[in-house]
Predict the 3D structure of the following.
Amino acid sequence: MHEIGQELKQAREEQGLTLEALSSSTLIAKKYLKALEEGDFDQFPGEVYLKGALRKYATEVGLDPEPLLTRYTGTEAQAENQDTEQQKPVEKKKPMPEAVVKNYNTVRRINKGRLAMFVLVLALLFVGVRAILISADSPASTEPPSLEDNELPGDQTPDDQPAPDGEPADEEEPEDVEEQEPEMRIEAENIQGGERFTVYNADSLVVDLSFSDRCWVRAHTDGSQEFEHTFSAGDERSLRAENEIRFRFGAVTVVTLTVNGETIDLPQTGSTYTVEIVLAEED
């Protein structure tokens, strides 16, 4: 630090400045300027004030203040480190009390014992699980089950045994097949002035009539006259016979005729028309 003060003083004298003149131009008290030249930096009330004064002094006498500040900072830090190292007491390691050493060794032995016990338990568990898995994977006994008296393999009963060579096997009786009734059928043939319909495979005759317009009708069932009537549009009539039904229509084109649920096609032209419906048996 003294070297920095000598450089400041030498530069001031080279400029021909006195401390009084320098104090007037920098507005720094003379005692602080003198303290800078003598390196007595402890005279300053604070670090900030010291550096500001050093900067103004150097600038005023034509010196670059930055190198001086850097040198001052480095010198100050080095001095503080030396003081700290001198003041720092050397700590001596205290020997571990004997009781603590004994307790530490005891704890280590206990922990080792617990670890060994834990490893032993894991080994036993592993062996047990492995034995269970092996027993589960082993194949089941292959000994054939004993057969009770009169018991045949494959759940066969004595009736299921094959017949000896040369003996005919019992033939199964055929199941009764339900006979289906033949379907009803109707055959048509032309007659004088009309048409005859022969009905096969039916027990009786049921005829339904419906009308879309006015129509005169004469009807006979099993040889007897049933009615003679003029029907209007929308009228309906049903007849039943054991053997035969005979109609005489005045306007056949407006009549719808159904025999045992099956509609009969009637001619769509002409007027008066005869229709005979006869029940017959198959030959």
In short: The first helix runs from residue 2 to 15.
